[in-house]
C-alpha cells in the first residue's frame, strides 16, 4: 500500500524517474478547451489529437463514461485521458456537477492496470474537482483505494498549495 503524495507544482512536469502517467478527467461530449487540458496542449499535441479522434470514431470504439485512453507523449511519459465527466458544467452551475464518481472509479481501476503493466507512477492535478465540479473529499478515497492501495505511486500537484502533505487511508 502506498500513500498519495501532495506537492506544489505543475502536473504536466511530473517528478521522478522511470515511467510516469499524467492522469486527468475528460468529458463525454468531445469538448477539449478549458481547464487542465490547456496545460497539456501547451506541452504536447498528441493527447488532444488522440482524444478528438477517439470521440469522432466513438461508434467504433470504447469512448464513453469509464473509458481510458493512454497516450504516449515522450520517452516513459504517458497521458491518461479518462472519461469521467458527463457533459460540461453550465455557466450558472444550477445543474448537478458533471463528475460521475462511478465512471471515475472505473477509470482509476483501468489506470491501475496500465500503471502496473508499465511499472509507472501516476501524476495528476486534483482530478474531477475543477470544472467537473467534484468534491475532493469524495475523489481522494477513490484514488487511494484504486491506485495507492494497489502499490501505485500517486502524486497530486497543487499550484500554490503547501508542499509535502501526505495522505493515507485512515
UniProtKB/TrEMBL annotation:
PROSITE patterns: MACRO (PS51154). Signal peptide: none annotated. GO terms for molecular function: ATP binding; DNA helicase activity. The keyword ATP-binding applies. Residues 1-170 form the Macro domain. Keywords: ATP-binding, Nucleotide-binding. GO terms for biological process: chromatin remodeling; DNA repair. PANTHER family: CHROMODOMAIN-HELICASE-DNA-BINDING PROTEIN 1-LIKE (PTHR47157:SF1). Belongs to the SNF2/RAD54 helicase family. This is O-acetyl-ADP-ribose deacetylase (Regulator of RNase III). It comes from Nonomuraea dietziae.
Amino acid at each position: 500500500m502506498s500513500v498519495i503524495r501532495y506537492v506544489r507544482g505543475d502536473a504536466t512536469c511530473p517528478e521522478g524517474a522511470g515511467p510516469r502517467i499524467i492522469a486527468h478527467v475528460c468529458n463525454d461530449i468531445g469538448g477539449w478547451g478549458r481547464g487542465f487540458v490547456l496545460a497539456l496542449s501547451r506541452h504536447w499535441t498528441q493527447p488532444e489529437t488522440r482524444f478528438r479522434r477517439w470521440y469522432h470514431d466513438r461508434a467504433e470504439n470504447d469512448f464513453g463514461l469509464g473509458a481510458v485512453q493512454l497516450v504516449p507523449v515522450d520517452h516513459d511519459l504517458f497521458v491518461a485521458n479518462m472519461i469521467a465527466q458527463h457533459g460540461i458544467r453550465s455557466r450558472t452551475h444550477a445543474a448537478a456537477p458533471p463528475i460521475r464518481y462511478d465512471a471515475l472509479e472505473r477509470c482509476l481501476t483501468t489506470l491501475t492496470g496500465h500503471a502496473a503493466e508499465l511499472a509507472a507512477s501516476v501524476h495528476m492535478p486534483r482530478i474531477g474537482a475543477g470544472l467537473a465540479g467534484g468534491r475532493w473529499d469524495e475523489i481522494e478515497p477513490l484514488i487511494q483505494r484504486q491506485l495507492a492501495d494497489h502499490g501505485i505511486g500517486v502524486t497530486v500537484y497543487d499550484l500554490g498549495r503547501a508542499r509535502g502533505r501526505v495522505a493515507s487511508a485512515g
